[in-house]
Amino acid sequence: MALEIANGFERTADVIELFDEYTKWIVSEDPAVAEVLRAQGYGEETASLDGKYGPPGGMLLLALVDGAAAGCAALHAFGEEGACELKRLYVREAYRGRGAAGALVRRLLDFARERGYTHVLLDTLPFMRSAIGMYERLGFVRTGAYYPSPYEDTIYMRLDL
């Protein structure tokens, strides 16, 4: 298995397909999450990936396994000075447990440090236990809400860089 972390802007159709798989999966786990996606402007996000995740402050990544799209993740400037937000981390089930998610997040963290961000924020959901464990191993800690979510069980995390 050859894992490569690539620029997602070079294969946006694959990224959008992965984003859509991700959103279908999380809504299937809990239909109430659909309201969170609406509140986050998910439709506008996929219509303008470069607007949200483009340079200089953002990054969109695609994990490739033997050339096939296996996962994705993104990062963008967020709110307060020095803050950025990690979004849309998703790895297809067939590729999970092989290090793709960790490689995506580590690349985004390196980018955040290079850009001078002071901390990374993220939100996640209680049923994403594997992701939460990985975030904690990478040094993320639970924090207070950094935006109002319509989903009361949203878990907010932060990593100081």
TrEMBL record:
Domain N-acetyltransferase: 1-161
One Pfam family recorded for the sequence: Acetyltransf_1
Gene Ontology MF terms in the entry: acyltransferase activity, transferring groups other than amino-acyl groups
Bilayer-crossing regions: none
Coiled coil stretches, renumbered: none
Protein name: GNAT family N-acetyltransferase
Organism whose genome encodes this protein: Candidatus Scatomorpha intestinavium
